[in-house]
Amino acid sequence: ALLITDECINCDVCEPECPNGAINQGDEIYVINPTLCTECVGHYETPQCVDVCPVDCIMTNPSHVETTDELQLKYQQLMKQT
Ligand code: SF4
Ligand code: SF4
Fold this sequence. Notes:
The structure is a single chain. The chain is an alpha+beta fold. The chain has a single domain (2-81), classed as 2-Layer Sandwich (Alpha-Beta Plaits). It is 23% helix and 15% strand. It has 2 helices and 4 strands; from the N terminus they run E-E-E-H-E-H. The two termini are 20 Å apart. The model has no long low-confidence stretch (mean pLDDT 97). The protein binds iron/sulfur cluster (SF4) (2 copies).
């Protein structure tokens, strides 16, 4: 999963781009729910939030480092729930 750092300027550009609805406005900055973020695996070739963020403040979440296979499995499980 990815993580938004405190360099976020709350521009709200990323939130509507997330195919998993993993991004929400937090108390101070935007936040990514790591259980919903597949790093866009299953939907797109590249992480859409990273592509649109004007200040490049989105990085890999060091507490949630996942392989492409794990992200693909998460994608499939999320699709089953909807
Ligand atoms: Fe959403 Fe993709 Fe960004 Fe993860 S990488 S928060 S799934 S847009
Ligand atoms: Fe924050 Fe970047 Fe999302 Fe804008 S696009 S809200 S700066 S994480």
